[in-house]
Amino acid sequence: MTALRPMIRCREIKAADIEAVADLLARGFVGRSRAYWLSGLQHQAGRDVPHGYPRFGYMLDLDGAPVGVLLLIHTARGSEGGTAIWCNLSSWYVAPPFRNHAPMLAKIAQRLTEVTYVNISPARWTWPIVEAQRFEAYCNGLFCAMPALSRVPDGTAVEFVSAATGAVEGLPHAEAALLTRHAGYGCLSLVARTQSSVSPFVLQPVRVRRGTIGLPAMQLIYCRNVEDFVACAGVIGRLLLRQGKIAVLLDANGPVAGLVGVYTERRGRKYVKGPQRPRLGDLSDTELVLYGP
């Protein structure tokens, strides 16, 4: 008798799958522990997801077990036309014996024309593949700023926002909720107050490596616009310096006027496909936050 070939199907990841999904991703990504993946999946399990969109993403199912995974992070964001749906295409791994089924994951994950898809961490070798899927680069690199070298305008102050903070004076409810939510993920949420403005910021600890040396730094996760960060860089930089952080990484397409630092295109490229255009300075509710750098 001829043995039956195993049946592989592409289906949505459910909460009951996350332990097995963490196992698969830990095998597929060298340097990322099972605990790293499980923590991120648990963050996805507890967050708000737009109705009708998958909570975790999709998997290739072989007799109930995942042999391929594409994580998706859907978020509803306000736009000029109302509410827009964004999707961060996150980690993608298929076990070697099943690589010929990998296009199934990409096809089903990117099939919705109303969704804006972003890929914020493509490996350099995947850039041609991403571009062949009709993605366009919207960010070409990173600017490594030394904000403590910037001037502090008179009357500027900065305050912390914790996961337990309620309303924040001077901020809309949605923006205050973004800051408290990200504080709960382990980010540093701040509000800078000047004589004429109230500006929210979210930053995340990272390490910038040069050879074997790790430079303690922060990544800018959220601001209303990069000009706000430039204006408040001095007071934020001095606060970070007291915490042992000397640099802040910003998404950029060139050197940032008003900041002391270095621009590079060796890392930091990010892609988009869909009806909305991302702006620099907003990586909120993405894999960088939910899973960590």
Widest sheet: strand ordering: 1-2-3-4-5-14-6
- Beta-strand portion reads 25-35%
Which architecture of the largest domain would the CATH scheme give at its second level? 3-Layer(aba) Sandwich
CATH class division of the largest domain: Alpha Beta
| CATH topology name of the largest domain | Aminopeptidase
> Average pLDDT, to the nearest integer?
91
Report the principal-axis shape.
globular
Instruction: List unreliable stretches of 5+ residues.
Output: none
- Number of helical segments with 4 or more residues: 7
Main structural class: alpha+beta
Largest sheet: 7 strands, mixed
Quaternary? single chain
Keywords:
293 residues, 24% helix, alpha+beta, seven-stranded mixed β-sheet, Aminopeptidase
Describe this structure in words.
The protein has 293 residues and is α+β, with helices and mostly antiparallel strands. The protein has 2 domains: 8-140, Aminopeptidase (3-Layer(aba) Sandwich), CATH 3.40.630.30; 142-264, Aminopeptidase. Helix content is 24%, strand content 35%. It has helices at residues 18-28, 34-46, 102-109, 127-132, 173-184, 226-242, 287-290; strands at 8-12, 57-62, 65-79, 82-94, 115-119, 136-139, 141-145, 157-161, 188-193, 198-210, 213-223, 247-252, 261-264, 270-273. The strands form 2 sheets. A 7-stranded mixed beta sheet has the order 1-2-3-4-5-14-6. Strand 4, helix 3 and strand 5 (115-119) form a beta-alpha-beta unit. Helix 1 (18-28) packs across helix 2 (34-46). The longest helix is centred in the last third of the chain and has 17 residues, at 226-242. The chain is globular, with a radius of gyration of 20 Å. The termini are far apart. The mean pLDDT is 91.
